[in-house]
Amino acid sequence: MFSKSMDIDFYSRQIGTFGIDTTKNIMKMKILIYGMRGLGMEIAKNIILMGPNCVSLYDKNIITHYDLGSGFYFSENQINKEKRDEGCVQKLNKLNPYVDVNVLNKDLISSIEFYDVIIITELVNINLLNKINEICRENHKGLIYGAALGLISFIFVDFGEKFIIKNLNGEEPKKFYIKNISKSNKCLISIDPSSIKASSLKNGDFVKIKEIEGMNELNDTIKKIEVKSLTEFYIEDDSTNYNEYIKGGILEEFKKEIKKNYLKFKDCINEPKHEEKLIDDEKDQIRHSIIFGIMEYYNKYNTLPELNDIEKSKIIVKCSKEYFEKQKNSSEWFQESNEIFDEEMALNLAKWSKAEISPICNFIGGIMAQEIVKYTGKYTPIDQWLWFDFYNSVKNMNVKECILNNSRYDEQIAIYGNDIQNKLANTNIFLIGAGALGCEYLKIFSMMGISTAKNSKVIITDNDNIEISNLNRQFLFHKEHSGLEKSICACKQVKMMNHDFNCEAHINLVNEDTEHIYNEKFWKNQNFIINAVDNNKARKYIDSQCTLFNINLIDSGTEGLKAHNQLIIPNVTEHGKYNNNLRNQIPMCTLRQFPSTIEHCIEWGKDKFEEYFNEDINMINEFIFNHLEYLKKIKKENDQNKIEKLKKIKAFLKLMINKDISEIINSAINNYMKNYINSIKKIIELYPENHIENGAIFWKGSKRFPSILKFNIEDSITFEFIFSYTKIYCNIFNIPYQNDKIKKEIQNSIDNFDKIKNNNINKETLYDEINEYKDKINSKEISIKAEQFDKDKNEHVNFIYACSNLRARNFKIDQCDKFKAKFISGNIIPAVSTTTACITGFSAMQIFTLLNYNSNRNLLNEININLAINIFQIYKPSKVERHTTIKKKKRSIIAIPDNFTDWDHIKIDGPKSIKCLISDLKNEYNVIIKGIYLPNSKKSLITKKMILKIILKLPIQRLLIKILNLLEELFL
User: Is residue 872 a contact partner of residue 863, using CB atoms and an 8 Å limit?
Assistant: First the structure.
């Protein structure tokens, strides 16, 4: 059996999404993929990046020129020579060194029982499908069947009988702190409002109750709840005879396992909806009927109609319509739809059913690969059918010419025509970001034939370098690329997929500082701007530039299994809506005295890291380079702070001279005492366990009464605190060390524990000692650099892990593993390849629509995706807002000119003086200028008082240059 260990760095973002247990379960899985055209290749890429035990490929068809349209790992020299599975296995193998990727050369049917999940990515004969389906069910294997058939696609899932779903949405259980429990025949539990999450519990959810003082009858029980309000839940218990509730208690969401019975393909082909779906679309009945007709044609002829073969496509339409009408009379699900069968739509989709185009392979491939993960029992599998079409991209399109010429784009040309293909070839795109989204976009654009004409290109910019943690979702990069510039490497890699693709790499940020590079001429030369950035500051700036220069902007983003896209189209749609999605700020009093979650403890641990390894180091640097001024400054502080700082300075100076590791260890033990013993004693003295404040119990709700820890170096977490602390300081002070030597020194230093604990120091003595040490140090030779927290440095993460878990012990909070400490402290955004593939595919499809109908908002689509629970909310972009005069009682807001939008501009022919500009605007629009502002700034550059006679005569360009030069001199 193929085995491997987990590379935490490689899988960090994935673990942040799926969790470590699910990632481990994926690593045990064996996957067989049947069909290796574009869709099969996309699924293989996504799942290989996730790290299963092995992935076997099966497709004995010879590569043709059609396969190059979506098969990104095929090349021209393989056409008519190699089989599809053999033609891509080598490149797929490079994606993840921990996965055994191979070609299945054995009999397909007899090999099925070896695998956990079988994925079929193209139409197969119904007899073969039913046989595979039966074997999968007999051997408790999962089956996922899907196909990208031109502009229509489907997915079918069968995970067998009594499949267990352990966690429907994959989210961590919500936790609430109990405020009060009633004694009544229908027990009412009130929770502390501070513990309410954005999405709270709902009727029918289950909770586990624990840690109650008083009403012990409810402790360690699991109850079904009925929601009364956001902060109140009923449980069915009659609590009238229970003990009185005193205080405390935690109410934790209980993820109840759900058993689900899947039907065989042949048993649900005619009634695909057998349970309630999350989102219904009345056109699903039409889509299913067209898919049925396509399948029936394939079963009869063992192939599909050639591209744009109208006569043979009519056979599919006839079969589909008859099936639709028949099901209307016999199927409850079909009767729910008010739609009339669309013959024109059916004919068009049928005549393109043999095609696979890259963006749709991305979209469907992301969804199907995520279904493989769901076989582990986490998340909600598809029930059991899912259908999509992208018919809007061609609706009412007038194709002038459709000549196929044996090129890799033939299947795309068959749908959209030569005119659109030429537009794609001559399109200029500015792609901002070469991370996970950027890599996927580059691949899709190269497959679509974008920027393949002589004078067109895709410019991609990213100022970041490749890290190991990027590799399991940024598929263009491999381990040997670590440390290289992302944009440069991505361009080189994607050129191998299509040599005609024109790609230019930049390593610049896109902001005010690079406007000399990305100037007006540059922006106006672009047809599309593609946002693939992960921060909203950049998004807002790019949005403002697209507004200024009237350019199409496509924006998309992901977080874990959720994704969205936005279309920002000149004079058609609104601007981008960018939520900050910043982590909730935790009040300092909560961090210092009243933590209630491990997140609070980890934030506190980060503060301690900042204090010890950054602030204190900056303090000693300040002292060394200007010690007299520094001592003068701290003399103004109170005695406690003064002594604390002087002690630290003395210890640091002594450490610089002696390079003695035991000094660091003593400091670590001292800080352990301060954090987990002395500070907790102070809290308990200030707020005893039975403390009453304002007539109410103080330690209730989310406030957890602390306990003092005992120093025990035999405890692994205590040892890790001392060990990691020591290693970080050794790095800061350039003290060579070996792990074994530190461990030995720690053991030797434990004997000094009592001496450290009772150590009293006189501040006058400290001054003398500090001056004595200072005289022995040459400040010119000193080089001490503060440590900035780095999630990729093990000793940093280990310190946060130990520091925060000891804090959690103080307050009886559930502890975390090292990965969770790394994930939270490092602000790691959860990300996986499936979501990225899905959203970029959907967004890229909008380019076809925009090239056809740039101003028709009703044919454009945006989407919100949640792959965990199969949410695909497709909707129209928000209509552009027109500003009109608003009349109010006291004063009116006047729109000038009336009915304008944010896309409208007033063009000023210059050069023109300020005086002329003011005069022209007054004459033309009756507007009085009170200030002139820089873009993205609320501060006026020129106010009314500044508009003097001399200034009024200067051309505005010269005036702005003079002011900007003056500002540059002042600030630089």
Answer: yes
Report whether 215 contacts 245 (CB < 8 A): yes
pLDDT at residue 470, rounded to an integer: 86
Which comes out higher in pLDDT, residue 422 or 939? 422
Q: Which residues contact 565 (CB under 8 A, 6 or more apart)?
A: 554, 555, 556, 557, 839, 842, 843, 846, 862, 863
DSSP labels, 355-418: ---HHHHHHHHHHHHHHHHHTTTBS----SEEEEE-GGGTTT---------SSTTHHHHHHHHH
* Distances 172 to 186, 252, 371 between C-alpha atoms, Å: 28, 10, 20
Q: Is the dihedral of CA 534, 540, 543, 548 positive or negative?
A: negative
Catalytic residues: 589
pLDDT for the residue 199: 58
Secondary structure, 3-state, 44-81? HHHHHHHCCCEEEEECCCECCHHHHHCCCCCCHHHCCC
pLDDT at residue number 376: 96
The residue that leads in pLDDT, 173 or 414, is: 414
Joined tokens for residue 181: 């429990």
The CATH number assigned to the domain with range 420-582+830-875 reads 3.40.50.720
Architecture of domain 8-165+261-389: 3-Layer(aba) Sandwich (3.40)
What number of other Cβ atoms are within 10 A of residue 500's Cβ?
A: 13
Tokens of 951: 């200034």
Given a contact cutoff of 8 angstroms between Cβ atoms, the answer to whether 529 and 557 are in contact is: no
Q: How many CB atoms neighbour CB 965 within 10 A?
A: 10
Distance CA 549, CA 539 (A): 16
In angstroms, the Cα distances linking 811 to 587, 593, 808 are 17, 10, 5
For 755-805, the pLDDT digits (tens) are 545 455 566 677 777 777 777 776 555 668 889 998 888 899 999 999 999
SS3 of 10-27: HHHHHHHHHCHHHHHHHH
Q: Average the pLDDT over each of 17-21, 498-502, 706-710, 962-966 and give the range with the smallest value.
A: 962-966
Beta bridge partners of 221: 209
**Antiparallel, parallel or unpaired: β 562-568 and 385-389:** unpaired
Fold match flag (8-165+261-389 vs 420-582+830-875): yes
Nearest to 348 by CA among 317, 321, 315: 317
Architecture label for domain 588-825:
Orthogonal Bundle (1.10)
CA distance 932 to 912: 14
Domain limits, the chain: 8-165+261-389, 175-254, 420-582+830-875, 588-825, 914-971
What lies within 8 Å, CB to CB, of 836 at 6+ separation is 366, 436, 437, 440, 473, 558, 563
Tokens of 64: 């043709």
Contact 842, 27 (CB under 8 A): no
Q: Which of 466, 465, 484, 483 is nearest to 475 (CA)?
A: 466
- CB of 494 closer than 8 Å to CB of 503: yes
* Banded model confidence at residue 908, pLDDT cuts 50, 70, 90: confident
Long-range own/partner contacts, residues 942-946 (CB < 8 A, 24 or more apart): 942/914
**Does the structure show a pLDDT above 90 at 261?**
yes
Residues paired with residue 247 on neighbouring β-strands, in sequence order: 213
Going by pLDDT thresholds of 50, 70 and 90, the confidence category of residue 497 is very high
pLDDT tens-place string over residues 194-236:
776 655 788 889 999 999 999 999 999 999 999 998 889 999 8
Amino acid at 73: Y
pLDDT class for 736, splitting at 50, 70, 90?
confident
What pLDDT score was predicted for residue 924? Answer: 83
- Note the CATH number of domain 175-254: 2.40.30.180
Alpha-carbon distance 74 to 497, whole Å?
A: 7
Residue listed under structure tokens 């053999």: 86
